[in-house]
Amino acid sequence: MLLCVCALLAACGGKGAEVISTGDRYVSNRAVVTDYRLGIGDKVRLTVFREPDMSGDFTVGPNGTVALPLIGATPAVGRRVEEVAADAQARYGDGYLRSPQVNMEVTGFRPFFILGEVTAPGQFPYSIGLTAFNAIATAQGFTPRADRYIVHIRREGATVEENYQLTPDLRVYPGDTIRVGERFF
């Protein structure tokens, strides 16, 4: 009997079993997001002063760019919205408009995904300040067999998921895939 319990615990303690309980995901919700980087699926609103035909809502496409009127594909993935706006302003000023004034803001974030031991797994819209508890609530809560202490999160673009201690301050980022595991006892 003791041998079976030891074998079970050894199987659970392999590589990747480390549980993270500190770091950038555990920042208080009161902290302001100041370094948001655009990704595929984000929606932005471009406003070109006194040029309503060039203003509008655009989406970061699968090739990582935003297709803007006149100037075409503008690199966006991994850049702050202010950087993309400055790039667009410079390109509009290079032979298209005289002294353009450009503003850009994020109007919709790429979704997050949740699967595993939640009532309604799937894809859901992201909102600023989203925590793992909020994400689980969005998926209609835990199933009776859910592990309520550890969640597994794979960041967008990552190849492996990391184990996180589930606390009220655990943040979720746009594009994250959250997996709620099954408890054994």
Description:
This protein is an alpha+beta fold. The protein folds into two domains: 42-108, 2-Layer Sandwich (wza like fold), CATH 3.30.1950; 112-182, Outer membrane lipoprotein wza fold like (Roll). Helix content is 17%, strand content 29%. The chain contains three helices and eleven strands. It has helices at residues 2-12, 81-93, 132-138; strands at residues 19-20, 43-48, 56-59, 65-68, 72-75, 102-108, 112-116, 122-124, 146-154, 162-165, 177-182. The strands form three sheets. It has a six-stranded mixed beta sheet with strand order 1-10-9-11-7-8, covered by helices on one side. It has a three-stranded antiparallel beta sheet with strand order 3-2-6, with helices on one face. Strands 4-5 form a two-stranded antiparallel sheet. A hairpin with a 5-residue loop joins strand 7 (112-116) and strand 8. The radius of gyration is 21 Å and the shape is elongated. The chain starts with a helix and ends with a strand. Mean pLDDT is 87; it is low at 1-15.
